[in-house]
Each structure stands twice: as structure tokens, then as C-alpha cells.
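Action item from last meeting closed. Structure (323 res):
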């Protein structure tokens, strides 16, 4: 097993501003990227973002948006693991962070990590190049200015693109991805191969779809030059993030397998999970006696498309039932 390097990231700078230091969340990317550039192949970096505050030398907790930005910045910088830095002290009766909104955002990010994890953890030696521009930001690139971005090849042939906005302002962005093998991109849309497909997964006619993960929508492809270049535009919220999946609409899976004609099962390959990310659509769950039992869509292995269903039943006979 390779070595894991934890990188602790404080989100506040050391320069006071009316008594409270201004945010410095870019360190979550910049420090990780610098360290990762010196690691061997059997070594990995984990990011430990600060998730508490309110006392000592930590004036306040991060906002949910700041926690989200730091998380995506770590992934973009090359971190393959994540552990939020909280502060529990039983003797002082401390349990930080104290914000319910911060816990809710961490849970939401954990759901997103489950979907993005297979591509992030793969640590490919080569990946498509990404350029992100915003006239409102006055900067361009994947490593400077107020934007950060990175592309990750997926095992199905599709490409994942992560974007993070460091500015506390809504930004219109232009994203250009080069070096794609557009003839081998993965299956089209999160409902690919299923029994229904919403308008938000329709192709714009170019044969290439760009799906905005976790948001139930697509963005239009502005250009596909036939040589592996794809570009599109979108907006990114203040300190916001985007996860895009670029794929070809005509593909039916990574291995050529097809769902049998006459299939009556809704969402048979667990591709659609519009309601909550981890829970595939079309399933009823029967709660068992073991509260630790769970089920979720799993992107690490599949028979058709890119997902399987992972079921965990720690206690025999007391797990969840699905129908």
C-alpha cells in the first residue's frame, strides 16, 4: 500500500481585515497540486479542510459555499482522499462545527464524491487539457486567476470535468476541453439504456452531450471540431462548483451490452438517480432491523452502463429489502 499524505488546509489567510482574516480557499488547490507533483505513483494525497471555528486562532467556521469550494479545489489539485477537520473536545464540551448547514453541505458533498470518486481515485497519467475563461473574472486557465478546472477520464470512455469558482460572484464561464477521443466517449445521459429519458438529456445534434451532474440538466455544446475538442458555456455560482460529464449520445454502454427488448423494469441498470444521487430511481426500500444496512448506486463496477447497485447488510437477515 502506498503512503497517504494528509494536507491540512486553513480557509482563512493570516492578514487581518477588520479583525477577521479574509478567506484564502485557493490554498486547498495550490498546496495540494504542488505536493502531488512530487509524489511517486504509489503515493497519494488526502486533503483535510478546516471545518470548524469560532474560537482560539480560528475566528469562524467556513460557510457551506467555502467548504464546497475547498472540497472541489482539493480534487482538482489532485487529492484522492478527503477528511474534514472538525474539533471535538469532551472535557470542554465542544462539538465543532456547530452549524447544521455545514453538516448538510458535507453530506451533500459525500453523495457527490460517491459519483465522482471512481474517476478521481484512478489518478490517470494522461488526461484531456481544460481551459476555463470568464470575462467577468479577467483570467483564464486551470491554475491561475479565480477559476480552477481539471478533466478526468472515466472507465466507460466518457470524461469528467470539475470546475471551481474562487470568486464571491456569479461568473459566466467558457469551458474548452482538448484531447478527447470523441468516437469512444461513454454512454449518453444518466438514463442511458433505461425505459425513460427526460428532455434534459436530449442531444443538441452534435452527437456529444455535456451533462451537468447533480443538477438535472445539460448544457449546449458550442463546438465539436472533430479533432477531440469540445467547448461549452455555463454559469458558476459564487464560490460554486460544477461537475460535467462529456459523452456521446449514440453509445449504449461501455461494453456493447444492451438491455433486452421487452424489459419492464424501470431504470434496470441503475443509471438514473435524479432524486438524491446515491439512491437509484424506481426502487422501493424496505427498512430492516439493522440501521447500518444501506444501498446505493456504485460507479466502480457495472454490468451495463456505468453503475451497479451496492447493498450492505452487516447483520444477516436484518438488512434492507428492495423491490
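Sequence:
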Amino acid at each position: 500500500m502506498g503512503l497517504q499524505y494528509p494536507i491540512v488546509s486553513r480557509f482563512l489567510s493570516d492578514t487581518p481585515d477588520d479583525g477577521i482574516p479574509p478567506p484564502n480557499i485557493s490554498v486547498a488547490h495550490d498546496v495540494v497540486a504542488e505536493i502531488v507533483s512530487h509524489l511517486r505513483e504509489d503515493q497519494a494525497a488526502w486533503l483535510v479542510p478546516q471545518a470548524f471555528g469560532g474560537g482560539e486562532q480560528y475566528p469562524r467556521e467556513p460557510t457551506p459555499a467555502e467548504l464546497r469550494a475547498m472540497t472541489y479545489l482539493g480534487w482538482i489539485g489532485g487529492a484522492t482522499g478527503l477528511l474534514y477537520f472538525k474539533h471535538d473536545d469532551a472535557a470542554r464540551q465542544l462539538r465543532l462545527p456547530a452549524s447544521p448547514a455545514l453538516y448538510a453541505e458535507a453530506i451533500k458533498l459525500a453523495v457527490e464524491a460517491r459519483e465522482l470518486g471512481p474517476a478521481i481515485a484512478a489518478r490517470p497519467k494522461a488526461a484531456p487539457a481544460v481551459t476555463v475563461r470568464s470575462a467577468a473574472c479577467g483570467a483564464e486557465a486551470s491554475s491561475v486567476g479565480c477559476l480552477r478546472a481539471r478533466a478526468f477520464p472515466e472507465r466507460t470512455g466518457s470524461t469528467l470535468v470539475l470546475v471551481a469558482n474562487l470568486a464571491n460572484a456569479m461568473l459566466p464561464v467558457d469551458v474548452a476541453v482538448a484531447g478527447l477521443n470523441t468516437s469512444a466517449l461513454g454512454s449518453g445521459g444518466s438514463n442511458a439504456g433505461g425505459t425513460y429519458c427526460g428532455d434534459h438529456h436530449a442531444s443538441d445534434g452534435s452527437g456529444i452531450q455535456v451533462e451537468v451532474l447533480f443538477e438535472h440538466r445539460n448544457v449546449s455544446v458550442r463546438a465539436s471540431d472533430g479533432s477531440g475538442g469540445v467547448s461549452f458555456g455555463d454559469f458558476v455560482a459564487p464560490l460554486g462548483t460544477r461537475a460535467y460529464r462529456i459523452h456521446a449520445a449514440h453509445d449504449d454502454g461501455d461494453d456493447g451490452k444492451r438491455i433486452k427488448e421487452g424489459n419492464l423494469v424501470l431504470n434496470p441498470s441503475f443509471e438514473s438517480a435524479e432524486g438524491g444521487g446515491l439512491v437509484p430511481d424506481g426502487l422501493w426500500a424496505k427498512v430492516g432491523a439493522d440501521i447500518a444496512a444501506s444501498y446505493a448506486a456504485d460507479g466502480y463496477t457495472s454490468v451495463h452502463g456505468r453503475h451497479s447497485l451496492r447493498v450492505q447488510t452487516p447483520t444477516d437477515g436484518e438488512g434492507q429489502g428492495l423491490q
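Note appended to the action item: The first strand starts at residue 4 and ends at 9.
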